[in-house]
Amino acid sequence: MNLLYSLSGFLVGILVGITGVGGGSLMTPLLVFLFGFKPTVAVGTDLLFAAITKTSGVWVHHTKHGSVDWKVVVWLAIGSLPCAVATLLMLKHYMAIGKETTGAITFTLGVALLLTAASLLIRSVLIRRAAAKNDINDTELDPILEHEIEINERTGRFQHMQIPATILVGAVLGVLVTLSSVGAGALGTVALLFLFPKMRTVKIVGTDLAHAIPLTAVAGIGHLSLGNVDLVLLGSLLIGSLPGIWIGSHVSAKIPERFLRPVLASILLLIGLKFVLQ
Predict the structure, then answer these.
(1) 265, 187 Cβ separation under 8 angstroms
(2) Residue pLDDT, tens place only, 210-224
(3) What does pLDDT average to over the chain?
(4) pLDDT, tens digit, for every residue of 219-246?
(5) What is the pTM of this model?
(6) Of 86, 139, 209, 229, which residue has the fewest beta carbons closer than 10 angstroms?
(7) Which domain holds residue 43?
(8) What are the backbone angles phi and psi of residue 110, rounded to the nearest 5°?
(9) Number of folded domains in the chain?
(10) Residues 76, 167 contacting (CB under 8 angstroms)
(11) Half-sphere exposure (CA, 13 Å, Cβ side) for 230?
(12) 103: in domain
């Protein structure tokens, strides 16, 4: 185990707990620029890291809050998982013929970070609007009314095309996350807020988190089979990040988000530009 890796995981975990931004947006650039890991190894390791760390969050959302719309998770997964597998097969093919994939992964990582930075700037606005429209206390709902509200929440901008549109979003996330390890958090949340404007905020977050687990697990295991995962690094990051996330989530209420998010978005914007222009 490397103490520097664990310390980095701890610091990233605190930021994730405070801001809610996915670890991939922060961890992958850190591994590339600070520790000099190849982008392929940084992406592969971070994907398995994300799959493990997000599991406890989904358990809380599902058991305590009942805030996972499993039908939407399935629609997203129908698009994302096959595309993740297809992307992994493409990477394997290029590796087999000796073609370098680092450039494509680096460029995709840069684009994903730029999109994440943009999503951070609009995510808070969308969440506040959704929360204002859907301020409902689950404990006061009887089962029949709760079922009707759940169906109504899925009524979005595309009406009868809702399912195909959700599957398409999942497909885009599948490719993007597999190539960059970025997008399952901030981008997924913004996409769901756009697709399902009537859905409660807590359910948006829980649903996005639940979809991220199988996606990052499939992509991470695929990268592991390609030799793109450093297991010592993974263990070190987990040791540091788990307490970091716990601490960050407890102090998040004391830090003004309206100041922190723009700063974080600006940092991701600069990092994304560096990756794209490399």
Answers:
(1) no
(2) 898 899 999 999 999
(3) 81
(4) 999 999 999 999 999 999 999 888 887 7
(5) 0.81
(6) 139
(7) 38-228+255-277
(8) -65, -45
(9) 1
(10) yes
(11) 20
(12) yes
